[in-house]
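Complex 227.
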Amino acid sequence: MQTILIVEDEPALARLAHDYLARAGYRAVTAAGVQSAGPRLQADRPDLVVLDLGLPDGNGLDLLRDLRQSSDLPVIILTARGGEVDRIVGLELGADDYMVKPFSPNELVARVRAVLRRGNRRRDAHERIDAADLAIDIPRMRVTRNGVPIDLTATEFHLLATLAREPGRVFTRGQLLNAVHGVMTDAYDRAIDAHVKNIRRKLESSETREHYIQTVHGVGYRFADAG
Ligand code: CA
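Predicted structure with calcium ion bound:
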């Protein structure tokens, strides 16, 4: 049974998350702040952490930063409405996903499942990515859709491969910029938008369909997760 640690100081919210995750078949444990999260991480060895950023005894982002020094334990952060900067910083510190409060507990369960599934997929990632009707051949830098080759530039290829390797994961523009570092010559955040636009033009029948690469407003992009 997989263990989920919920770090949340609002008792009603912690309880709700706990009950829904328990009902979904997870072992759920809770901590009400940064201080109490440490011992829980040690004692319960969670498989995933749901982390509120606004905690009474510290900032969840500091806890996330500490965690990332030593592990790649999956983390879903909980942020306040309008807390876009927190969201972006959280993702850049290595959070796997985020949820904006107030959120539906069913949605939380779905995100937990998706992040854990992604973790499994990452472990047995191969050099060829099959996503819907796309096939991405990493060593040969070749993309085909339904067997038909699609001509991408090196930057476009690396951007697409980065996103498609972890379907459903939200990447900030800064993260995508890092991923194509050394490939991309125009190194500023908004250049990512132009490249994504070009990839879409080549992949999609219509630029607005966002069938493969989805825009996450105010944050960045993600590759569609077919489940
Ligand atoms: Ca809080």
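The chain has a mean pLDDT of 89.
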